[in-house]
Amino acid sequence: MNHMKIGKYKLASLVIAATIGLGVSSQTVSAKKKDSDKGYDIQKILDKLNGKGSKLSPKKTIIIDVFLKPKNEAKMSSQIYAVNTPGTSDFKHFYTPQRFAQEFGQSEQTANQFKRYFTKYKLSTHRYQNGLVLRIKGKVSNINRALNTNLQTARYHEDPVQFSAKKPKMPKSLSQHVLAILGITNFNPKANMAKFINHKKQKQTHHKQKVFSKYAPTKFTRHYNLDSLSSQGQEGQGQTMGIITFAGFNKQDVSHFWKHENVPASTKRVSIKKLANPVATTSDTKTNKLETTLDVEQAGAVAPKANVRVYQANFNDVGLVNTFATAFDENKAQSLSMSWGISEYMTHYLKNHKMWTPEYAKIMNIILAQGALQGVSTFVASGDSGAYNQGVGGKIGPFSIPNFNTYANFPSDSPWVTSTGGTTLPFKKKLAKDLSIDVKRERTWGGDYMYPAFQKRRSFFTKNIKNALLLTKIFAGGGGGISSLYNTPLYQEQVPGVNTFNARQYLSITLQPKINPVLVSGTDYGRNYPDLSANADPMTGYQMYQKSLGGWNVIGGTSVVAPQFSGATAVMNSGRTSRMGFWNPQIYKLAQDKINTPFTVLDSTTNNSNLYYTGQPGKPYNQASGLGTVNFEKLFSTFK
């Protein structure tokens, strides 16, 4: 890639153990009669595990996914554009799950062959309606017999690892239909999921016992002109918003929040589809529950008459696929949001070490393509660490040295979702007698606006815990960049600003803030993200309520934006005769109409960065804030 890169760092206060963040993995299956029982390179990484492996309890129940090869795969992309692009004969002729299976999935007859095979081993099989995912559930001993595996456990640093030193195998009559098996190998952190979840570090700014209107979700609806639609009676009635999540929440917290926001507060608005967990270790911790609580509260406040459907599993390869597959299977939610993700670096790392099937990025894209074909508007948060993401670094004695660089965020980088980035609203804040912050206009969210104050008096930011929390925001910003995992989608081709970039390296290789760094320009190629942005800075953030975390808090993060956009979609859909569908094919065309564009581009090269990327003057797109912010009233009138 042509980007300037940030290298390894040793800042002791920010050192994080190099651990695996997503429980991803598996291997492509092979035919039983051809393959031997020899190991398959996994030993290279297993040699580095802390402690020897031990056999997984044969009585333990686990879940794996058999992902079948899609049919007519080359047709999938063209059909997404056909149903989501005005002027085509198929425009708005959205697919049902059954039609998707008919055109792209394997037949029920093929699925029944697998079911009969796994039944012989006392394993249950659930076929998703898309005809591609088979969820297999049963005891470890029976999985081992059916797939000729030898499931074991070990630890990588402090995290549990599930693996098989033998490659999964099936009869050739079945394996010829299989793209990959998910869940044979699983990395799953315990209570420290935030290490590779970009949307956790910048959440809480301060506790408060009062509700302030300046932190209410109405700030979003007013500032981006969504309230003009609500005043005309469009409040999300008849709509369902889906939340993809990997932790639980308390419905009473949500009801309490909605009541104080003066919107319908009945818990009957919320339903939960909890998927069986494929691994024993849970991501359902108190701090992770903040994410789900936040998403449900924000979506339900923005669209006060819409229902919320929560899809919950554990955060791993099987859980990520199955939550989306279930949502699209049900086809109840017209809009969907997710606020979780991992660094693209990890997708390459896990793949290269045989702990992630090489097909996983393709599998997720196929699943998300199904949603786009069904007319589901899917929004995924772009991340909260600016253009940067963490990879796996080395160790010097007991100290971990993370690899911190300009890596994209998965799956916000998928071409079949609308990626939501972050901005900072204008505000002034007096830090001390002669120390203040002044953001004069809405800009891309990046902590560099605090650098002059930091340079003037660094000791202020480190003198106590409260100010140290302010220090963390120096390293925060809206996610955005250029993917090395996915190619540039057709809707971004030839759009000015896509695959070119302006950048200022606001962080040194030792993670020290740099004042007035030089502007550099370059080119690259890949899926550019985010697509759109809205206020996400904790300094100009939103309130939420979670009793277990002290009650009322002011929060930020692009994970606020994703459910807000889902709520905005529900509001707009309630005034339409059909779903808006997948936004991107239309919004990139609208952004190039200089007269009628519903977007305000943030294109300045100064005071407008996500700690690396800046605006590109005169161009409708940049990797810091995408196409910019939205005037929802105008989008409603121009979106077909």
Layout of secondary structure:
Blueprint: E1 26-27, E2 30-31, H1 43-46, E3 54-55, E4 61-68, H2 73-84, H3 97-104, H4 108-119, E5 124-127, E6 133-139, H5 140-147, E7 151-156, E8 159-164, E9 169-170, H6 172-175, E10 178-182, E11 186-187, E12 206-208, H7 218-223, H8 227-230, E13 240-245, H9 251-260, E14 270-274, H10 286-302, E15 307-312, H11 317-330, E16 335-338, E17 342-343, H12 344-352, H13 360-373, E18 377-381, E19 389-396, E20 399-405, E21 409-410, E22 418-424, E23 427-432, E24 435-439, E25 443-444, H14 451-456, H15 458-462, H16 465-472, E26 481-482, E27 500-504, E28 519-523, E29 528-529, E30 532-535, E31 542-546, E32 551-555, H17 558-573, H18 584-590, E33 599-600, E34 629-630, H19 632-638
The H-level CATH homologous superfamily of the largest domain, spelled out, is: Peptidase S8/S53 domain
CATH architecture type of the largest domain: 3-Layer(aba) Sandwich
Q: How large is the share of residues in beta strands?
A: 15-25%
Determine Rg (CA atoms, Å): 24 Å
CATH topology of the largest domain: Rossmann fold
Mean pLDDT equals: 85
Shape call: globular
Summed up, the domain count is 2
For the record, what CATH class of the largest domain applies?
A: Alpha Beta
How many E-type strands?
Answer: 34
Contiguous uncertain segments of 5+ residues: 1-46, 188-209
Protein name: Peptidase S53
Organism: Lentilactobacillus curieae
GO molecular function, one term: tripeptidyl-peptidase activity
Domain Peptidase S53: 214-640
Can you offer a commentary on this structure?
- This protein is of the alpha+beta class.
- The chain folds into 2 domains: 26-70 and 105-184; 193-638, Peptidase S8/S53 domain (Rossmann fold), CATH 3.40.50.200.
- Helices cover 27% and strands 23% of the residues.
- Strands 13, 14, 15, 16, 18, 22, 25 and 30 form an 8-stranded mixed beta sheet that branches. It has a 5-stranded antiparallel beta sheet with strand order 1-10-4-6-5, with helices on both faces. Strands 3-7-8-11 form a 4-stranded antiparallel beta sheet, with no helix packed on it.
- A hairpin with a 2-residue loop joins strand 23 (427-432) and strand 24 (435-439).
- It is globular, with a radius of gyration of 24 Å.
- 55% of the residues are buried.
